[in-house]
Design a protein that fits this description.
The chain has twelve helices and seven strands. The chain is α/β, with parallel strands linked by helices and 271 residues long. The longest helix has 20 residues, at 92-111.
Length: 271
């Protein structure tokens, strides 16, 4: 573990200055903290926000950056004006990532920062991640991957360094809740955000509300499924008010990237 921490510090120290693509999650928060330790005030955190980003996430990002004493910009992103993104094909994340990272590269150039870095870890190579093509194409750095850090190690180091994000639930943009091929709209994103906020306020720690049109498919941790069902009347009433006709529970529980199952099944069928 110490060898990987040293390697991360060496990677970051090799840059004169760095702009960190910062969402406030466990990965980007550790990257930001490590960059601040390596480069001091030559670090800028930039958080791009849109309808795909929740208020809760923004509040956490602002709080952690302030605690680290890092310069932090919050900038509006415009992927909902970008047709390749809202079409929501399986390469959606590539288009989104390319658009957002291009924006960060421009900010870095304008403000004189040498490189842009993002927080992918080694485990991110194990799933359908078209966004990584944009990372490589734009020569954005991935120091956590370069240092060989897994998600578990990111959390372990974050806890050692006293970062409040060490046990933060896994998060992804709200567009990942909409099945591929179905358009991404502000209305769908809004009701997903409202539905997930309701569940979080009930005490569920890891939440996804998959938006299948009139149907909401709820994912929580497997050990919390029974508790979810025990609150069914309250949840159904509020989900119907939000705009869902049917409310279902995924008995498999939370699964990161579960919308990619159809892609993986199709690939298996083609072999």
């Amino acid at each position: 573990m110490n060898n990987k921490i040293d390697k991360l510090k060496q990677i970051l120290s090799s840059y004169r200055s760095i702009l960190v693509a910062y969402s406030g999650g466990a990965d980007s928060a550790l990257l930001l903290a490590a960059a601040q330790r390596a480069l001091g005030d030559k670090v800028l955190a930039v958080t791009l926000i849109s309808e795909t980003f929740t208020r809760r996430e923004l509040q956490r990002a602002v709080k952690v950056a302030a605690a680290l004493g890092v310069k932090h910009l919050v900038v509006k992103s415009d992927e909902l004006d970008y047709r390749p993104f809202i079409r929501n094909n399986p390469d959606r994340c590539y288009h989104c990532k390319y658009l957002r990272l291009s924006r960060l590269k421009k900010i870095a150039r304008d403000k004189g920062y040498q490189v842009v870095a993002e927080g992918s870890n080694l485990d991110d190579n194990t799933d359908h991640r078209p966004g990584m093509m944009a990372v490589r194409r734009l020569d954005v750095k991935s120091p956590l991957q370069q240092a060989g850090l897994t998600k578990a190690e990111v959390r372990q180091i974050s806890k050692m360094w006293g970062l409040p994000t060490w046990n933060a639930p896994s998060q992804s943009c709200l567009a990942t809740r909409i099945p591929y091929g179905q358009p991404i709209t502000p209305r769908r994103l809004q009701r997903i955000a409202e539905a997930e906020e309701l569940l979080l306020n009930l005490g569920f720690t890891q939440v996804r509300v998959r938006d299948h049109g009139d149907i909401a498919r709820i994912e929580v941790l497997p050990q919390q499924v029974a508790e979810l069902i025990s609150n069914k009347e309250y949840i159904c009433r509020h989900f119907e008010a939000i705009g869902y006709t049917y409310v279902t529970v995924d008995l498999n529980g939370f699964s990161s990237g579960s919308m990619n199952k159809a892609i993986n099944q199709n690939r298996d069928g083609e072999k």
